[in-house]
Amino acid sequence: MSDATLIPSLSFSLPRLGRFRGLANAALGISLLMALWWFGGWIIGNSDELFAFADFAPAPTLSRLWELIVSGEVISMSVPSLMRVGLGLVYAIAIGVPVGIMIGRMKRLNEVANVPFQFMRMISPLSWMPIAVMAFDTWDGAIIFLITMAAVWPILFSTASGLRRIDPAWLKVARNLGANPLHMLFVVILPAIAVDILTGVRLALGVAWVVLVPAEYLGVTSGLGYAINDARDTLDYASLGATVVVIGVIGFALDYLCMLAVKRFNWVRDGH
After folding, report:
1. CB of 198 closer than 8 Å to CB of 258
2. How far apart are alpha carbons 170 and 168 in whole angstroms?
3. CB burial string 71-101: b at 16+ within 10 A, e below
4. Confidence of residue 155 (pLDDT cuts 50, 70, 90)
5. Is 257 helix (H, G, I), strand (E, B) or coil?
C-alpha cells in the first residue's frame, strides 16, 4: 500500500480513536466511582455505629432505583422539579439577558450597577427563603423565585461579558449600512453573544439544580427535594440513595444538553 493511500486512512481513524479513548476514560471514571461507592457501603455496613445506614450501599440503592423506574415514580417525582427549574430559568433569562445587554452596552450603567449586582450575587439564594414565603401565595411561586434568584446572575454577567468582547468594527459597519436599533440587536448583537448567553444558561442551570433540592424542603408535596426529605423522615435510606442517583443523572443529562447547544451555536470556528 502506498503512502498516499495510507495517510488518509490514518487521518480518518484518528477521530474514531479519540472518541474510543474518551468513552474508555469515561467508563473508567464511572467504574472508579462505583468502586468507591461500594467500598464506602461496605465500611458503613460493617460499622457498629453506622450499620443502620447500610441501605446507602449500591445493591439496595440500585434495587430501589429499579423499582422507582418500573413503577413510574421517577417520572412523577421528577416532572414537578423540572417544571420549577424550567420556569425559574425562563424568568432568569428574561431578566438576565436584557439587563446584561444594557450594562454591557452602557459604560455608565455598568459602573453604577456593578457593585450592587456583585453584592447581590454573593448572597446565597436560599437566604431569600423567608422573603419568598411571605411574598408569594403558593409554595411553587416561592421555589421558582428562589431558583430565579440563583440563576439570573450567571446569565446576566455572561451576557454582559460577551457584549464587551464584540468587535466595535462590527457595530460601526452595521450603523454605516443603515441598521436601526432592532437590526443591531437581532442581526449583530444577539448572534455575536449567543454562545455567551448559552454558557451563562449552562452555569445557571447547574446552580439552579443545586438550589432546587433544599428549596423543595418548603411546604410542597412533590418533587425530588420532597422525595429526599420524605425518605429521610421515614428512614428509607434506599429510596434516599435512589433519589440522589436520579438527581445526579437528570442534572448530568441537562448539563450535557446545554453543552451540545453551546457547541451547536458556536459559529466562531478556529481557523474558519
Report:
1. yes
2. 5
3. eebbeebbebbbebbebbbebbbeebbebbb
4. very high
5. helix
DSSP-assigned letters across all residues of 205-238: HHHHHHHHHHHTTSS-SSSHHHHHHHHHHTT-HH
Distance CA 171, CA 184 (A): 7
DSSP designation for 3: H
Residue of 206, 193, 184 lying closest to 92 (CA atoms)? 206
- DSSP secondary structure of 152-173: HHHHHHHHHHHHHTS-HHHHHH
Record the cell numbers describing residue 270, joined without a space.
Answer: 478556529
Q: Cα–Cα distances in Å, from 265 out to 4, 191, 199?
A: 36, 9, 11
pLDDT tens digits along 235-257: 888 888 899 999 999 999 999 99
CB contact at 8 A, 85 and 208: yes
Question: Distances in Å between the alpha carbon of 135 and those of 36, 99, 128, 233, 234?
Answer: 44, 23, 10, 28, 31
Do the beta carbons of residue 125 and residue 150 sit within 8 Å? yes
Q: Are 260 and 91 a contacting pair, CB within 8 Å?
A: no
Cell of 11: 487521518
Of 191, 242, 192, 231, whose CA–CA distance to 70 is shortest?
242
The per-residue pLDDT for range 63-99, each reduced to its tens digit, is 888 999 999 899 999 999 999 999 999 999 999 999 9
C-alpha cell belonging to residue 17: 480513536
Residue with cell 451555536: 265
